[in-house]
Design brief:
Cytochrome p450-Terp, domain 2, 391 residues, Citrate Synthase, domain 1, 3-stranded antiparallel beta sheet, binds acetyl coenzyme *A, globular, 2 domains, 3 strands
């Protein structure tokens, strides 16, 4: 075995072989199973795309109808899960609620028959079907309301918006939300997908796989950035404040949310599509107060940091779309998770096909051959910066 150099963040280190998605970060190309994201956004639906990702090909009409039917049938939550959610603090972040609920599914559907295709199919259906219901239910419950039951006559995206906003969405809003889900469904082995794969490689249940990925997606350097973008635009407040803000971030070496990507060194193709979707929504439902600020941000950051390949990523314009759809800011990342479940499950299934447990190595940098020091002779480690331990 060749000894490889250490690459922080595993940058550029292949950790698997995969036929699910392809990214060319220099040319700004993203393909799912070889199909360009622009084509899927225009012609496909989220559930058809999820089928493509998970089962490796576009479904026939009959297969798609069967898949959609199964998902409609499994949208409801067990009342015990709803009761569990009632105990969550209202101030808790919806991503934490989602992680707990995804993991709890393992209590109800615990049989781990990973070599049984029917078990795999049912787990895929349950997770795709129930995650949106969980997100919408937590939103209503934290306001003190009962969750809205899913409606079987509505499609996947329309039903989520209905459960969330308690009214049937405009067809354009539902279609645009469905495209957003397609755009967020998969993106090679990013942090949360890698987390899903590591968990999957232990042959644990798929609910633990998704729960682990949800926890990883929540961080502000990953899926959590979409929420931070809106906070940032709000904080900037006006077009005139954009350039001083950007200059200050550069001087202080702080990250500008919604910009930069480990792989893309040009504008993320999903950001381009999302910007177009935002404009369609603004045309029909009115402009967003932050859009002008966002446009100026893109211009200023591209001028100042374009030489480093820093351009808008998927999280930059998604928040503006979600705001227009009536989605609260702290649900942006759970909405990302609703979509990315498709990609996580595709990688789970692929991982099971040729599994070897992930167990990388490390370069040890600590001391060796240390003697055990008696308690009286030890140097102090907790210093004044910590408060005295509570009793
Ligand atoms: N704002 C300002 N400078 C940036 C940004 C940014 N958003 N992103 C990268 N840079 C600069 C870094 O300061 C660094 O400059 P230097 O070489 O002069 O020190 C250089 O670009 C490389 O940055 P790294 O942090 O090493 O890049 P990495 O590939 O590790 O990070 C990441 C990628 C985490 C996405 C980063 O760009 C970032 O933190 N962006 C902001 C958060 C964000 O939007 N995350 C969402 C990403 S998309 C997703 O996960 C769904």
């Amino acid at each position: 075995m060749t000894v490889c150099e250490y690459r922080p963040g595993l940058e550029g280190v292949p950790a698997t072989q995969s036929s699910i998605s392809y990214v060319d970060g220099q040319a700004g190309i993203l393909e799912y199973r070889g199909i360009r994201i622009e084509d899927l956004a225009q012609h496909s639906t989220f559930l058809e795309t999820a089928y493509l990702l998970i089962w490796g090909g576009l479904p026939s009409k009959v297969e798609l109808e069967a898949f959609e039917h199964e998902i409609r049938y499994h949208r409801r939550l067990k009342y015990r899960i709803r009761d569990m959610m009632k105990c969550f603090p209202e101030s808790g972040h919806p991503m934490d609620a989602l992680q707990a609920c995804a993991a709890a599914l393992g209590l109800f559907y615990s049989r781990r028959a990973l070599d049984n295709p029917v078990y795999i199919q049912k787990a895929v259906v349950r997770l795709l079907a129930k995650i949106p219901t969980m997100v919408a239910a937590f939103q209503l419950m934290r306001k003190g309301n009962d969750p809205v039951q899913p409606r079987d006559d509505l499609g996947y995206a329309a039903n989520f918006l209905y459960m969330l906003n308690e009214r049937e969405p405009d067809p354009l809003a539902a279609r645009i939300f469905d495209i957003c889900l397609t755009l967020h469904a998969e993106h090679t082995i990013n942090a949360s997908t890698f987390s899903a794969m590591v968990t999957a490689s232990t042959l644990t249940d798929p609910y633990a796989v998704v729960a682990s990925a949800v926890g990883t997606l929540a961080g502000p350097l990953h899926g959590g950035a979409n929420e931070e973008v809106i906070d940032m635009l709000q904080q900037i407040g006006s077009v005139e404040n954009v350039r001083p803000f950007v200059d200050r971030c550069i001087a202080e070496k702080s990250k500008i949310m919604g910009f930069g990507h480990r792989v893309y060194k040009v504008k993320d193709p999903r950001a381009t599509i999302l910007q177009g979707l935002a404009e369609q929504l603004f045309e029909k439902f009115g402009q967003d107060e932050y859009y002008e600020i966002a446009l100026e941000m893109e211009q200023a950051v591209s001028e100042k940091l374009g030489h480093k390949g820093i351009y808008p990523n998927v999280d930059f314009y998604s928040g503006l779309v979600y705001r227009k759809l009536g989605i609260p800011t702290d649900l942006f990342t759970p909405v990302f998770a609703i979509a990315r479940v498709a990609g996580w499950l595709a990688h789970w299934k692929e991982q099971l096909g040729e599994n070897r447990i992930f167990r990388p190595t490390q370069i040890y940098t600590g001391p060796r051959q240390q003697g055990y020091v008696g308690i009286e002779d030890r140097p102090q480690i907790w210093d004044k910066q910590f408060a005295a331990p509570s009793v």
